[in-house]
Amino acid sequence: MKNFQNIRIAVDAIVFGYKNNSLYVLLIEQQFGSADKYWALPGGLVKQDESLSDAVIRELHEETNVQLTFMEQLYTFGDDIYRDSRNRVISVAYYALVDASNLEIKADTDAERVQWCKIDTIPILAFDHNLILEKAISRLKAKLTYEPIGFDLLPEEFLFSDLENLYCTILEKEIDRRNFRKKILSYGFLEETDNFSPIKTGRPAKLFRFNKLKYNELIKKGFHFEIKFA
Amino acid sequence: MKNFQNIRIAVDAIVFGYKNNSLYVLLIEQQFGSADKYWALPGGLVKQDESLSDAVIRELHEETNVQLTFMEQLYTFGDDIYRDSRNRVISVAYYALVDASNLEIKADTDAERVQWCKIDTIPILAFDHNLILEKAISRLKAKLTYEPIGFDLLPEEFLFSDLENLYCTILEKEIDRRNFRKKILSYGFLEETDNFSPIKTGRPAKLFRFNKLKYNELIKKGFHFEIKFA
DNA sequence: TTAGTTTGCGTTAATTATACGCAAATGTAG
DNA sequence: CTACATTTGCGTATAATTAACGCAAACTAA
Predict the structure, then answer these.
(1) CATH architecture assigned to A151-221
(2) If exposure means fewest CB atoms within 10 Å of the residue's CB, which of A115, B6, B217, B221 is most exposed?
(3) Which nucleotides of D are covered by protein (CB under 7 A)?
(4) CDD domains annotated for this entry (chains A, B) (predicted)?
(5) A80 with A7: CB under 8 angstroms?
(6) pLDDT tens per residue, range B151-173
(7) Homologous superfamily of domain range A8-145
(8) pLDDT at position A2 over 70
(9) Residues of chain A with C-beta less than 8 angstroms from the C-beta of B53
């Protein structure tokens, strides 16, 4: 075997969003070769003088118009050496959580269509993107229980019932509404706003806000976030 | 900027071992260019037709004579585009835990020397290997608390005091010996052997063994390992 | 007014964690 | 042979946390 290395390096972006009590992921439709159209995760080749994290943020922006400042690295996929049939390509996957209600997406260069796709109706995707997405979902599920990332999926101000619903939906678990509320409130990083939900059914509900500063202070004191389920 | 990509892809191996009540990592000494010698993590370029995980296991074997069957992916380092001064190189880091008392290491191709290095006396390493190692250590610490990986660092049969010591040392925390024992035993995946420790001081201690099968059964039933510290 | 709905606060029992006490089983020093 | 140092292994009391549930308050719609 000759020693020459001809491997391309790509990045892929998994962007999770939450709306209508469901978890979504951002997909693009791409044309491959002459005929085939495939849904895929946003992503593409890293440029020569570009860091990996810059690359994934650039590709996401180019293909979906979504402008993020940070994505977290998920995993690097390079064990299947034929994952791309054209060349050997290794892909570093990144993920992010966004408030989907507050985001303008539009197809741009490279992508023909961009869409939020519900997590339980994902089609067959290009390359090994189904595998990548699965890994991202299990990471999301795990992280949800030990870091307060659920708030990233919600608007600035949200209802307790939204938060509760988010947890139940994503983790596919039942949960006691009252104990959940008690526990989260006991942490002390949520603050009540003076605003009420516009929904006109049942008792009016206060809107809450996640206080990141307070959370960071707690962390410094050794606090450890955790949500457990039966 | 031209579209041509000339990025090499490498793998690096972090192998943790435990002996003499201390945590160690496997390092090699390499010659760079004409004069400089540097300690570094084992690793090297991925071959064209080789999966990432095969590559890291091969490199580790070539450089240290340590033959593993599995390593877990840690992180991919590619944000500092000058991390290797010669070319742009992206490195996928993998780590593993081994029973150091049971391992023959020897310098081989590429490496001049191989050595277990105590984690609190790590020298300045080549490239960004200090950064990589730091990340590996924090991953190890985190994982130790929610997966029963401590046993991988011990011999097949071990003393409870060894296990206790391992946790205290790596996590740098105090722990109540009796509560720790009670908790671990309550999980039911440790089995007593008929053997006793050869140490001739104090009351003779039973040797224990980690029953992976039993652990896997528990996992299937929804069990979740956890060791918390004050 | 009444029924339906969701919020927000509370109480109690069960479980788990924490902080210890102490005897058993050895080797060793005198 | 005895007293002592040392480490193991088991136990118990108390505090803290979690889980299970009750119910009134505050609104809308009819």
Answers:
(1) Orthogonal Bundle (1.10)
(2) B221
(3) 5-12, 18-23, 25-29
(4) NUDIX_NadM_like
(5) no
(6) 999 999 999 999 999 999 999 99
(7) Nucleoside Triphosphate Pyrophosphohydrolase (3.90.79.10)
(8) no
(9) 79
